[in-house]
Amino acid sequence: MIYTARGIHRADEWIDRVLEDKETSAVEGHLGTWLEEVAQIVSGGVKPGSGVDLQLTRDDGSITLYAIQSAPSTKNAGSRKSDVKALKKAAKPLRAHRKVVDLRIAVLWGRKATAEYGGEPGVEIEGSDDFWNNISGIEGFRGRLLEATVVMPELIGSRSTDEVERIRNEARNVFARQDGDLDVTALANPPRPARRSQTR
């Protein structure tokens, strides 16, 4: 619906936009996972689970618990509230053993400043540069990550041309009229995908 509302009525243009958006969404997901793994590696921390994405033990014995989000807009207020709840729950047994525990929400990309998280005393939301500098010990580490993404296409490889063309042809057969316009009726009532046969 969003594509037709934007004035897209040609089938090939619609197919290209859908493929591009799907690819962008997939890349964002992979980047988020990659950044979390980099954070764990460079910090020497662990992922304890239960809603906590990273646990660091400092040289002085204190512990920092992180809930991580990729960018400022990737989580709504409800998700942030769940993160804070998970951080506090994970901190309880550690504090019961007289450990000093800091609770933080890290934004991997796009947040400028570190500040106390509103309405939650004792919980900080950490700016992107502060987070990467703190866990890596390297000033400007986020810039190095950006440089790494520049060479990623060569490492990952370009998407399969044959596979994309196959998807295009299948979409044309289903959603394109003979004149090349988008078949809105078919779009509103797409055929069900064929079930894959299960081997026993």
Short description:
This protein has helices at 2-5, 11-43, 77-96, 128-136, 141-150, 152-156, 161-175, 184-188, and strands at 54-57, 63-69, 101-107, 115-116, 123-126. The protein is an alpha/beta fold and 200 residues long.
Description:
By secondary structure, the chain is α/β, with parallel strands linked by helices. The chain has two domains: 77 residues, no CATH class; 96 residues, type ii restriction endonuclease, domain 2, CATH 3.40.1560. It is 50% helix and 12% strand. Helix 2 packs across helix 7. The two termini are 40 Å apart. The model has no long low-confidence stretch (mean pLDDT 86).
From the spread of the alpha carbons, the general shape counts as elongated
Give me the secondary-structure category.
Answer: alpha/beta
Distance between the termini: 40 Å
Rg, Cα atoms, Å? 23 Å
Note the beta-strand portion.
5-15%
CATH superfamily of the largest domain: type ii restriction endonuclease, domain 2
Query: Please, what is the average pLDDT?
Result: 86
Uncertain segments are: none
Which strands sit side by side, in order, in the main sheet? 1-2-3-5-4
Biggest beta-sheet profile: 5 strands, mixed
CATH topology of the largest domain: type ii restriction endonuclease, domain 2
Helix content estimate: 40-55%
Count of runs of 4 or more consecutive helical residues: 8
Q: How many structural units, i.e. domains? A: 2
Name of the top-level CATH class of the largest domain: Alpha Beta
CATH architecture name of the largest domain: 3-Layer(aba) Sandwich
How do the helices and strands follow one another from N- to C-terminus? HHEEHEEEHHHHH
Q: What is the number of E strands?
A: 5
